[in-house]
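Try this one yourself first.
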């Protein structure tokens, strides 16, 4: 487990007892003491429970562990009839003791080390009585007994001797004639101890110096390793984006070729066209070969993405991070950015700050909650997800029609010089025709028209997703955020600015766009509202919303 992927929530069970005049906290003796450990054995949190607990990603667990391989409710420990039991709560990646998978439940013998999946997340659990026994108390130092020496100072035989006087005599640079035998003996012991301590201090200093040099070397090595790993990951990320662009373009061409072949077969069947069987067979073989090549390319893409995640995990493991709420939110933002085609390792700080502002905007309105309720009530989510998956597009595009219309299938936009956008996807009449939808006779009037295909959610979804794919594979270069910006404004100056950028994913992406151009205010709001809604949708309860993650079923 990497320490940047765990968020802990303490839930201590304690009682109080009196110790002289001080109030101290003491563990309940019939409960458990738990240490949350990472893969290196570092302690990330301490917990005490009297009656058992649950562990998982969900916020209402006794121990909250935010990690991709930890389930929402991963495991539980309960005391039943004086016996402690471990329960596997149908976790996706399993619960292990000594490398052995616990399929259902098992009686616990303490102390015990429990592993949650294979992420390097461990719970070291002891019974309170065992923990108390292991905390041995050091015995107090022996009392130093001083032996009075012979009084030799005849000038003031009854003057009281202070601690300062004793220290001055024992630590004086030279012996004094009036020093007694015990004082001289004590001074020799002190001198011998000083010499011994001096040598010990020298050894400690040299050891510390060696550790410091080793630490500097380790930090330097880690920085070099981090930079090299980061560079490899970034290079692979843009290789992935280039392959995605090529696959998307090839998909479009394959669809066009298949459509032509279907038209040819229909013409042959109606005897309107004559073509040799050899030519027909050749076309069919070419299309079949292209489909096979596309499957192979998609497999290669999946392998590259898996390798990329390894590089990113390795890069993150070399960073010192702390499991805080802010860090958890940063990880969600990075995840959404990655899935939308932007490099998470180059995530600008100002972008993260801006996303947080728009999350606060969503928290101040009921619009997101209402739109999700509409989505669930009308069962509109499944056809959108199916279409996006079919064309290999980011699933976070489900939030685009939410921003366009709140998933209102009868939505009608304002009149513009490009026309009137209608339906949940807010398609212009010209765009609808391009992607196979017939606008109704009231296309240029701000009225609902049952003959207008844009108000048919299934038709509008197919057209909207095809339009997204075209932008994704052309000017946007597989950048989901550039797709959003282009979709919002259509044929305008935003597309013109995008086309001025180099025609490759490394140089044409949203981070580069933000550095070189200024988005119109409406488009900026549009992009950040969709992105921040996607972040909230990863863990709505964390952000104060009362709906289930829309994409949760696909990930569990």
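Now uncover the answer:
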């Amino acid at each position: 487990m990497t320490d940047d992927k765990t968020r802990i929530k303490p839930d201590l069970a304690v009682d109080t007892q009196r110790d002289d005049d001080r109030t101290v906290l003491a563990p309940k003796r019939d409960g458990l003491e738990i240490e949350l450990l990472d893969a290196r054995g570092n302690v990330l949190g301490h917990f005490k429970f009297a009656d058992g607990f649950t562990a998982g990603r969900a916020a209402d667990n006794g121990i909250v562990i935010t990690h991709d391989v930890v389930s929402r409710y991963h495991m539980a420990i309960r005391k039943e009839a004086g016996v402690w039991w471990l329960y596997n709560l149908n976790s996706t990646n399993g619960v292990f003791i000594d490398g052995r998978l616990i399929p259902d439940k098992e009686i616990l013998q303490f102390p015990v080390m429990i592993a949650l999946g294979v992420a390097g997340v461990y719970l070291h659990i002891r019974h309170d009585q065992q923990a108390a026994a292991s905390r041995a108390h050091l015995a107090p130092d022996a009392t130093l007994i001083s032996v009075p020496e012979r009084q030799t100072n005849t000038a003031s035989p009854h003057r009281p001797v202070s601690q300062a006087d004793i220290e001055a005599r024992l630590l004086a640079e030279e012996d004094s004639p009036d020093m007694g035998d015990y004082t001289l003996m004590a001074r020799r012991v002190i001198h011998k101890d000083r010499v011994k301590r001096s040598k010990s201090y020298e050894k400690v200093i040299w050891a510390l110096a060696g550790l410091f040099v080793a630490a500097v070397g380790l930090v330097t090595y880690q920085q070099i390793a981090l930079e090299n790993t980061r560079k490899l990951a970034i290079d692979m990320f843009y290789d992935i984006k280039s392959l995605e662009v090529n696959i998307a373009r090839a998909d479009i061409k394959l669809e066009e070729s298949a459509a032509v072949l279907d038209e040819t077969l229909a013409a042959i069947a109606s005897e309107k066209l004559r073509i040799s069987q050899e030519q027909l067979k050749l076309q069919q073989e070419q299309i079949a070969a292209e489909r096979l090549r596309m499957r192979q390319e998609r497999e290669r893409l999946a392998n590259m993405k898996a390798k990329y995640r390894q590089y990113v995990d390795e890069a993150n493991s070399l960073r010192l991070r702390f499991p805080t709420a802010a860090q958890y939110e940063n990880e969600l933002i990075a995840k959404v950015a990655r899935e939308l085609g932007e490099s998470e390792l180059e995530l600008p700080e100002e972008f993260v700050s801006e996303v947080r502002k728009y999350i606060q905007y969503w928290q101040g309105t009921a619009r997101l909650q209402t739109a999700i309720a509409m989505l669930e009530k009308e069962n509109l989510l499944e056809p959108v997800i199916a279409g996006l998956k079919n064309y290999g597009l980011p699933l976070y595009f489900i939030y685009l029609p939410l921003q366009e219309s709140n998933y209102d299938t009868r939505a009608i936009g304002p009149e513009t010089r490009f026309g009137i956008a209608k339906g949940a996807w807010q398609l212009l009449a010209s765009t609808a025709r391009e992607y196979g939808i017939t606008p109704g006779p009231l296309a240029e009037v701000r009225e609902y028209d049952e003959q207008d295909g844009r108000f048919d959610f299934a038709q509008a979804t197919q057209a909207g997703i095809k339009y997204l794919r075209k932008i994704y594979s052309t000017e946007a270069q597989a950048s989901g955020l550039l797709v959003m910006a282009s979709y919002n404004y259509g044929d305008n100056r935003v597309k013109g600015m995008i086309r001025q950028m180099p025609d490759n994913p490394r140089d044409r992406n949203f981070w580069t766009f933000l550095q070189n151009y200024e988005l119109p205010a409406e488009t900026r709001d549009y992009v950040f509202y969709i992105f921040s809604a996607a972040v909230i949708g990863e863990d709505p309860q964390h952000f104060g919303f009362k709906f289930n993650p829309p994409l949760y079923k696909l990930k569990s």
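Discussion: The two ends are 19 Å apart (CA to CA). Residues 181-269 form the longest helix (89 residues).
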